[in-house]
Amino acid sequence: MNKKDKITVQGTEIIIFKKEHEDYISLTDIAKIRDAENPSQIISLWLRTYSTIEYLGLWEMLNNPNFKPHIYEGFKNESAKPHFWMSPQKWINETNAS
Q: Rounded to two decimals, what is the model's pTM?
């Protein structure tokens, strides 16, 4: 079972998920600090950068045996272009991210 802890940052509660010996922080909660009404917009802006896509792809390749690296490579190449846009749902669905 996953345990959840919380911290407060700039008046916003942020959930920390604990799974086994690893901690995972909620990016949605962090994005609420910037835009409480539409945190998904903040996350989508973050996801459109080359360095973010590169980081997520590396993490998935190291930790997710079901990840689709060939799809990731296409996204990584596209993320260097100004028109690139990514949503969390698209990333998860198309790359089989965990």
A: 0.77
